[in-house]
Write a structure and sequence with these properties.
This protein is mainly alpha-helical and 78 residues long. It has a domain of 51 residues. 22% of the residues lie in helices and 0% in strands. The chain has 1 helix and no strands. The longest helix is centred in the middle third of the chain and has 17 residues. The mean pLDDT is 82. Keywords: Kinase, Transferase. This is Ribose-phosphate pyrophosphokinase. GO terms for molecular function: kinase activity.
Length: 78
């Protein structure tokens, strides 16, 4: 099995990446965000200037979103 640093990643992103951290999970969300930022900055992507990779490297992937809950416990992201 290849290590993370040995993987050959030449896939084109399908869409933008965003992270919604639910209430009570902000600390975990921040850790995931920090990992993603570090990983994408260190990946050394040779196609950074390609339009398909626009927005690939960001300072944060956390989105400003609210997730209200219904009486049933279900939620919706807005």
């Amino acid at each position: 099995m290849l290590r993370r640093t040995e993987r050959i990643l030449e896939n084109i992103p399908v869409g933008s990446l965003g992270l919604i951290s639910l209430t009570g999970c902000e600390e975990l969300g921040k850790k995931v965000d920090d990992y993603l930022v570090k990983w994408r900055h260190e990946s050394g992507n040779a196609f950074r200037d390609d339009i398909a990779f626009s927005g690939y490297e960001k300072d944060s992937y956390l989105l400003d979103a609210r997730v209200p809950r219904f009486g049933s416990g279900e939620a919706k992201g807005v």
